Amino acid sequence: MLEVAGLTARYGAIAALRNAELRVGSGEVIGLIGPNGAGKTTLLKCIAGLVSPARGTVSFDGEVVTGWAPERLVRSGLALVPEHRRIFVDLTVAENLRIGAVTVPGPQRAQRLAEMGERFEVLADKWDTPAGYLSGGEAQQLAIARALVSRPRLLMMDEPSLGLAPVLVDLVFDLIDELRAEGSSLLVVEQNASRLLAAADRAYVLRSGEIVATGTGEQLAARADLFEAYVGPSVDGESS
């Protein structure tokens, strides 16, 4: 499904990633945890074509996709729910979803939007509401629905529970479980390490741009040194 090999990314003189190696198999939920500034968001952006790596490769379904434009990657089956949602606040819920469906053939778009309304009932009730009027939890559901409307084969989520009330955090992790049951593949960055490790098939720990631990969620949760790596200091100036 997804293979990241030797990925290095820089912001000027700062190395945000150093020789990152990561794999997501078909139908797997893979977690990515680490302190702020570890390089987690940079890794997702490299995979999504939003950041060009200095070296290394990203392969999807056996094809090297390093350097592909984000739109081409979306058409190939990759979708990203970005940190802080990045919805269009002046557009309605429906208009935001139509933007997510831009790669869907015209005759299928109405059906895809209807599917999102069935999955996210709160959005169906606010179809014509400008997204800027949504609550934080509703906006996060819209960001996820906008990514799902294209039926991606790999969904990447960057801090999906950030800033949400506990009941909405439960909703996010329930959705992850539902998508796994449906056979979806997910790569999830999340500060709530305990919840993510409980949900993930496997996970990677990033610190200062390097993978410092990997294993099943259960294995990593049982390691005494995990949270030292997870909460340890990050290098100043690195992106998260």
Strand content: 25-35%
Q: Can you identify the CATH class of the largest domain?
A: Alpha Beta
- Counted beta strands: 10
CATH H-tier superfamily of the largest domain: P-loop containing nucleotide triphosphate hydrolases
> Secondary-structure element order, as H and E?
EEEHEEHEHHHHEHEHEEHH
Main beta sheet = 6 strands, mixed
Strand arrangement, major sheet: 6-7-8-3-9-10
Just name the CATH architecture of the largest domain: 3-Layer(aba) Sandwich
Number of H/I helices: 10
Please specify the SSE layout and strand pairing.
Layout: E1 2-11, E2 14-24, E3 29-33, H1 40-47, E4 55-60, E5 63-64, H2 70-76, E6 78-81, H3 93-100, H4 106-119, H5 121-124, H6 136-148, E7 154-158, H7 166-181, E8 185-189, H8 193-199, E9 202-207, E10 210-216, H9 217-221, H10 226-231
Parallel strand pairs: 3-8, 3-9, 6-7, 7-8
Antiparallel strand pairs: 1-2, 1-4, 4-5, 9-10
Can you characterise this structure?
With 240 residues, the protein is α/β, with parallel strands linked by helices. It has two domains: 1-77 and 154-240, Rossmann fold (3-Layer(aba) Sandwich), CATH 3.40.50; 85-151, no CATH class. The chain is 37% helix and 25% strand. The protein has ten helices and ten strands. It has helices at 40-47, 70-76, 93-100, 106-119, 121-124, 136-148, 166-181, 193-199, 217-221, 226-231, and strands at 2-11, 14-24, 29-33, 55-60, 63-64, 78-81, 154-158, 185-189, 202-207, 210-216. A six-stranded mixed beta sheet has the order 6-7-8-3-9-10, sandwiched between helices. Strands 2-1-4-5 form a four-stranded antiparallel beta sheet, with helices on one face. Strand 4 (55-60) and strand 5 form a beta hairpin. Helix 3 (93-100) runs parallel beside helix 6 (136-148). The protein is globular. The relative contact order is 0.21. Residues 232-240 have low confidence and may be disordered.
